Each structure stands twice: as structure tokens, then as C-alpha cells.
Amino acid sequence: MRNIHDTQLLFDLSKPGRRALRLPTCDVPVQPIETLLPAGAIAEQAPALPELAEPQVVRHFTNLSTQNMSVDSHFYPLGSCTMKHNPKRNERAAGLAGLGDLHPYQPESTIQGMLALLYDLQEFLSEISGLPACSLQPAAGAHGELTALWVAAAYFRDRGEQRTKVLVPDSAHGTNPASAIMAGFETVTVKTLKSGAVDMEDFRAKLDDHIAVFMITNPNTVGIFEPAMRQIADEVHARGGLIYLDGANMNAILGVTRPGDFGADMQHYNPHKTFSGPHGGGGPGAGPICVTEKLASYLPAPIVVKRNDDNQAPVYSLDYERPKSIGRVRSFFGNTGVLVRAYCYIRTHGPDGLRRVSEQAVLNANYLLSRVKHFLPVPQGDRCMHEFVASAKQLKTERGVSAMDIAKRLLDFGVHAPTVYFPQTVPEALMCEPTETESKETLDAFAEMLFRITEEDPELLHTAPHTTAISRPDEVAAARQPTLCHCG
Amino acid sequence: MKPEELLYAKTHEWVAIEETDGGKTATIGISAYAVESLTDLVFIELPKQGRTVAALESFCEVESVKAVSDIYSPVAGEVTEVNTPLADALEWLSDDPYGAGWIAKVKITDDAPLAGLLDYDAYQKMCAEEA
Questions:
Q1: ipTM of this predicted structure
Q2: Which residue, B85, B106, B36, is CA-closest to A396?
Q3: Which residues on adjacent β-strands are paired with residue A419?
Q4: How many contacts (CB atoms, under 8 Å) link A and B?
Q5: Which helix (H) or strand (E) holds A320?
Q6: What is the pLDDT of residues B59-94, one digit of tens each?
Q7: Which residue of chain A has the CA closest to B43?
């Protein structure tokens, strides 16, 4: 069934002179290009583009698209990514002409619907986080982290405080220390215990008056709700520092607890995780942030505001009058497409529904954990939040089968692999997050598949996958000697 | 160098101490256990010659197909020599971690951090517990 011919590189399929269409002879006077553009703007020769007929191009991309895994075609328990189903009604809503066909330079009076939607979304996100001020501008989760750290830096600058340190647990997402460095801070790693919790002794040894921010993920990346969260927040606050909550794992706590209530001063959301915006393609994404009242004035401008005049419909506008703002971090209002999907998702579920989303996500993860732990131990224990990290360490020692072997073999069974080798605090990690949108049947089938794989011949596993177009690319050569151009 | 004669940091760097005129110089690398845990290496950012480092300060970075990891200086002092050819010969780290795979030499300015280093047996014990 697989079409190997048409999935070759377009450059390899190219034949000189082949065309998708031929234009009729030009029936207006032709102007030489030299008379239209200055010499410096004209290329010496035309770019070497592939020359192909339309059916070849269609077959090329259609066949390639079927070689990919997506949440619409396969179970995708990729931990930390919350690969839940993306309801199709949200796609339809985001495509409505009144939302999808707007131009950002339209007068505000003609985009009141969009502004009302964005205003409400700011309010919803603030309510869910327990942090009263919100900016929708950041274009991705990590961009939200960076924006929030700039907000923190502006806050300290305004107070005349020189604070340099950002504490980050060793189980954090790699974006945390990267954001801290980009915002001009130095990062200090805080150890975590075997249980997955922050090592309070190490935390206290590194906490001093230079602390700017403690960046914490809660629930953390091993799927544990930080047992000393309140204590950590109190001690950081006592030193004048701020708590940043990495909101990647919000799917575990919607409507159950709020970061603002457990001590966070700032957080980002990943709407493509928690609120079902589609993943993939590298964007366009969004990473809205919410902050406490005392940080509100430093948020990026503009913010959507609402004015209620007596007996008149409310008027929405963009507020640029924010003298303490760190300024723009994104053009216009951010990537509204994914924000509209988040809005639809939140409105569809409502407060009680969002709570049920989290309860079901946690229940599904615990059910899967209870089935998997018998053959792939879960070092952090019998209970988890929305995800858990199993370890193939024993299998590696006893039979030479690694987490990577299991991950690759799962592709043969038509399931995307869990996240592997993260967090680094768990050896041979397999981080599984089933999400609330999977049925018991899917979870049972996945657990049985995993069990079957752990019993298979190690040789078969070392060379898996056996059914995909490409088996194991040479990652070392790809990183060290990358081929970045077509050299055919 | 014989791994049995080296000192080790809890963060998996090895240290060989050499008496030089009027002081001590440490040759630093990473242990075979560390190299194995990192899996296939693709890049190393070596420390700069002449920079000063505090004990346990990150002064080098290795990237594997899995992740980017910091390498910490087990001693305090000044980087006097760097194994620059290593950047293009990362296989030395796995083939000869205690020889050709050395990373840098640091002229020690403070002896105190040396007391926190482990001997070979203690380090082996720590690795066994971690594994």
C-alpha cells in the first residue's frame, strides 16, 4: 500500500520543464524586470525550485501525511503534552468569518465581538488561576514563561531591588532555566527527592535574599502534587521572592485548586494542552499569563478592557495607557485562532465541567498506572495526578531492553510513544499521560500492548519499529553532520 | 589515568590532582558511568581558558541525543588548559574517559572543596545506589 515513489524528495522527483499549469501567451505589453526593480534587488539566477505536475505534488504530500501519527488517528499518551482530543466544534467556531477573517488594523468598533471574546477569556483564565490580571499576548508556553520573568524583573527594578537568582527544580521542563537566563537571571538547580518532591533541605540551602523567582511545576513532571507547596511559597515570599507556576500540568487541577490560592504570583497556560487547541506545526500557539494584582501594571500592553456606560451596551477596547508595562511581546493581540478555541472549550465545559475534565484525567492516569506498575515499576508510588513516570530500568538491567526500545516498538502497534528519558531524575523514564478523552478500552489495550512488548525478544525490540517508513534515524549523525540542503 | 586513583564529585566528574610549583592543578573529566548515562553525545561546549570557576559551578555543557547536561567544576580556581580537540572527537569521552577524554585543567586556588570529593570506592558505591 505504501507509495514509496511519490514520497521521495520533491527535488528528486523534479523534471526540467514539468509544470502544474501553462499560462496563455501574455496579451499585455511586457515590461523588462530591469525597468521595474533596482539592480541590487534582482537575483543573478532564478532559484532552483522543483518542477512537478500537480498530481505528483498532491500524492507526495497526501502520502507523507499518512506516515505521521496524530491524536486524530492514534492514541498519543505523550506525557507533559496533554494530547487530548481537539473537539471539532472549536475548529468550526475559530473559522467563523466574524472571527477568522478579521484584520488587526480594523477599527475597534468593527471588532467588538472578538474583543469581547478576548476580554472574557482574560477573565476566565484569571478565575481558573486565582490570579487577577491576564495577558493573552505570548505566542507559546515558553514565551509566556519568558514574559512573566520580564514582568518579575520589571517589578524588582521598579522597587529598586537587585535580585539575580531563579531557583528551578531538577525535574523542571528545560524551558524554565532557558527562560530565566534569557530574562537576565542566573539559574540555580534545586534537587528533588526520590519521591519526586522538592528536597526542602537543598531548597533552604539555596534560598537567600538574592532570590527573584522560584519556578515550580505543580503538579510536577513526575505527576505528584508538591506536598510542601504552601511552605515553599511562604518561605520564598518571606525572602521577598516570587513564585512562578509552570502551567503545563493545569489539566490535573482545573476547578480543584488554583495556583493563586497555593501561593503562585505568576503562571502561564498552554491552551493547546489544557484547553484543546490543536498541537503541532510549531504554531501558531499561545501562552497566556496571569499574575497577581501587584504585578498587573507590568504586563505587556495592550490589554483588552471593558467600559460599561449607563444604559448602553459595554464597549471593549485595547488599553495602551500602561506606563509601567514591559511593552509588547507579540504583534497585535497574540494568536487569536488558538485563543478562540480555548474560549470555546472553556464555555463548552463551564466551571463544573472543567472540574470533571481534571477529575477524569487524574482517574484515567491512576487506572493506567495501576495496570502498568506490575511490569514497569513507577518509582514515585501508587498514586499520581494526570500523568505518571514508569521506569524500564529493571528491564534494561535484566534483559537489555531500554525505554527507547519500548517506545519504538509501540509504533508498530499503532500507538504513539510516551515521553521518554524525561524527567532525567527517573532512569529509563516512560512518562505516560492518557488524558480524560480516552476510554477504558483504549487504556486496557495500551497496558496489554506494553506488557506484551516487555515479554518480546530483545533483538526484535532493538531493531523496532518494523512497520514504519523509516525505522531508526541516525540521531547522532543528524545532530553532528546535518545535511541541510538538497545536494542531489 | 587509573580510575581507582582519581577523586570524584557527586555530579560525576573525576579529578586528578597534580602538585605543581607552588600549588595544585586539577585535571577534570567525566566518569565512564556519566558517559554511559548520557548516551550518544553530539556536542560539547568546552570551558574558556583563563576563566575562573567556583567549586560546583557549571563550566561546561554536553549535549546528547537525550538532553543537554551541565558539567560542574569540582574545584575552585582558574582554567589553565582546555582539551580543545575533544570538541571534534567526542568518541574519546566514551572510548577513553580517563585519558584522551579529559576536559580541562584548573589551577586550584582554594583547597577546601577537595574535602567534599569521593574516592573511587565511595563513588562506585554511590553509582550502585543510583542505578
A1: 0.76
A2: B36
A3: A431
A4: 26
A5: none
A6: 999 998 878 889 999 999 999 999 999 999 999 999
A7: A480
Nearest chain A residue (CA) to B41: A476
Ordered by start, the domain boundaries in chain A are: 10-66, 88-347, 351-475
The lowest-confidence range among A48-57, A277-286, B21-30, B84-93 is A277-286
Give the three-class secondary structure for A12.
helix
Residue B22 pLDDT: 80
- Residue appearing with cell numbers 510516551: A418
What is the distance between the alpha carbons of residues A215 and A247, in angstroms, rounded to a whole number? 10
d(CA A67, CA B31): 41
- Cα A292 from Cα A265, distance rounded (Å): 5
Amino acid at A165: K
- Fold matches, A88-347 and A351-475: no
CA nearest to A393 within chain B: B131
Which residue is listed with cell 514504519? A468
Mutate to test the interface with A, among B41, B65, B88, B94 (most CBs of A within 10 A): B65
Dist CA A407 CA A400 (whole Å): 14
- Among residues A67, A75, A73, which one has the least CA distance to residue A445? A75
- The structure's pTM equals 0.89
Domains by residue range for chain B, with CATH: 3-130 (2.40.50.100)
Domain A351-475 -> CATH class: alpha beta
In sequence order, the 6+-apart residues with CB closer than 8 A to the CB of A37 are: none
Over 60: is that where the pLDDT of A283 sits?
no
What angle, rounded to 10 degrees, do the helices at A403-412 and A440-455 form?
A: 120
| Digit-coded pLDDT (tens) for A76-134 | 999 999 999 999 999 999 999 999 999 989 999 999 999 999 999 999 999 999 999 99
The residues facing A168 across adjacent strands are A189
Q: Which residue of chain B is at minimal alpha-carbon distance from A478?
A: B42
Residues of chain A positioned with their CB less than 8 A from the CB of B131: 393, 397, 427
Give whole-number Cα distances, A292 to A6, A300, A442, B63, in Å.
55, 14, 41, 37
Q: Do B42 and A479 touch (CB under 8 A)?
A: yes
Kindly state the cell numbers that stand for A323: 506606563
- Rounded to the nearest angstrom, the minimum Cα separation between B61 and chain A is 14
Among B48, B98, B114, B108, smallest CA distance to B78 is for B108
Do A174 and B66 lie within an 8 Å CB cutoff?
Answer: no
> Which architecture characterizes domain A88-347 according to CATH?
3-Layer(aba) Sandwich (3.40)
Closest Cα partner for A187 from A159, A161, A206, A209? Answer: A206
Torsion over CA: A111, A112, A114, A119 (sign): positive
